[in-house]
Structures are given as C-alpha cells and as structure tokens.
Design brief:
- By secondary structure, this protein is of the alpha/beta class.
- The protein has a single domain, classed as 3-Layer(aba) Sandwich (Rossmann fold), CATH 3.40.50.720.
- 46% of the residues lie in helices and 14% in strands.
- The chain contains nine helices and seven strands.
- The chain has a seven-stranded parallel beta sheet, with helices on both faces.
- The chain is globular.
Length: 249
C-alpha cells in the first residue's frame, strides 16, 4: 500500500529537468495552480532542492527526485519514490533535454549520440514508465521544438531528436485510448534560457528576437503558461504539437 508523505495532497506533477531553465518556471506555475510537485534533476540535487523548497514555501507539497532519464531502472525507481512520497502521479511534464549545435558534416558523433540518448531515448523511457503509473484523467506533456519545422542550419541533430519526440507524442495519444489521458507536446520557439543563449553572438540573438511578429524572444513564463493549459483545462486537446513561438513561421 502506498503511503504519502503529504496526506490529502492535490494532483501530482513530475517535471523532468525541473531543476533549471524552463522546467523551473513550469514548477513554479504548476505550484501556483495547486499541484504537488516532483522536481527532477539529473546531476544537481541542490538546485532541485532549492526549486522544491520554493514551491513548498508557496504552499505546494514538493520533493526533489533524481534520475538519468535514459536509464530504465533509475526512472522506475524515481516513479516509485514519487508514489511513496506524494501518493501517485497525474501529470508528466518532460522538459529534460540537451542541445549541441553544429552543421551535420562537422558534428561529433559523440554529441549526436548524447542528444539521441537524452532527448529521444529519455523521452521514450520516461513516457514508458509514466503511462504505467499516471492515473486516469492525467496528462503527458513532452517537449519538442519549433526548429523541427523551421529547419535552421546547425540544428540538424537536435531537430531530428525532437522530430522523434513528435512521433512518440502523436502515436502514444492513440495508444492510450480509453484511459482519459491526454498526450501532447509543447514546441517552444526561441526562448531566453541559458540553454538557448549560451554561445550565441548578440547579432544572432537580435535576429532571432525580431523573427516573431511579436518581436521578442519568448520567456520561460510563456512556455509554462502553455504547459499549465495542457496540464489542467485542456482535456479536449490530445495528440497535438503545440507551437509556442510568438508566431514564427
């Protein structure tokens, strides 16, 4: 029998990559919306604990949980811990991912393999465990990218992994027929996060900022708003890739 550390807790969301970037802001938004949170980290437990503590201060039950998202055993143990401490799971938000930019001809295969392992295998492994655990009426929210359709140079490998995420998302939604579990992906456009800004010249950042009709980079809060929609009221949105990019074509 599962015993929750937080008796009577509300709906529970696991946010992978919740210890930094967009994931942290997603945790904050879902905490404000009344969720209990499992804040995942890959290597920085202190960062995840800080995010979880901030959620608890805001009144949300929250724990930090660690796992290599591509390791099936570690992911299973992470879900066991979430069920033990929070009583179950209703929503998965899978933001964890890495990005290495290079033209295809120059990309080191080790970098390619790392992206495939984290972005594609990681999505598959976490989703595989999640659909065994998520309670009926729940939601799976994967993270894709607008670069899949923009086809920007130097994004070949990264976009390929995210194209795979799109396929997983659309097919899994159909495989869960009868469970009342929605499966969607959020596909951010250029967003002001360390992952996106790192190593880019200011000229490139300025060009990307002017690309959307709204003439700015996205903010993590913009992405978190879309996640909150899919995690809560959006029960008739299913099997979709939701482009959250300010109108970039």
């Amino acid at each position: 029998m599962t015993t929750s550390t937080f008796p009577g807790s509300p709906r529970v969301a696991l946010v992978t990559g919740g210890s930094g970037g967009i994931g942290t802001v997603v945790v904050e938004r879902l905490a404000a919306d009344g969720f209990a949170l499992a804040v995942h980290y890959a290597g920085n437990r202190d960062a995840a604990e800080t995010v979880a503590e901030k959620a608890r201060t805001a009144g949300a039950p929250a724990i930090a949980v660690g796992a290599d998202v591509a390791d099936e055993v570690a992911v299973r143990e992470m879900f066991d811990e979430i069920e033990r401490q929070l009583g179950g799971i209703d929503v998965l938000v899978h933001t964890a991912g890495i990005m290495r930019l290079s033209p295809l001809a120059e990309l080191a295969l080790d970098d390619f393999d790392q992206m495939v392992r984290t972005n594609l295998r990681g999505t598959f492994v976490v989703a595989k465990e999640a659909v065994r655990r998520i309670r009926d009426g729940g939601a799976v929210i994967n993270f894709s990218s607008t670069v899949v359709k923009l086809a920007l140079p130097a994004y070949t490998a990264y976009a390929a992994t995210k194209g795979g995420v799109d396929a997983i998302t659309m097919i899994l939604a159909k495989e869960l027929r009868g469970r009342d579990i929605t499966v969607n992906a959020v596909a951010p456009g250029p967003t002001a996060t360390p992952l996106f800004l790192d190593g880019k010249p200011q000229q490139v950042i300025d060009e990307l900022s002017s690309a959307p009709p709204l003439e700015r980079l996205g903010e993590p809060a913009d992405i978190a708003e879309a996640v909150a929609f899919l995690a809560g009221p959006a029960r008739w949105v299913n099997g979709q890739i939701l482009y959250v990019n300010g109108g970039v074509a």
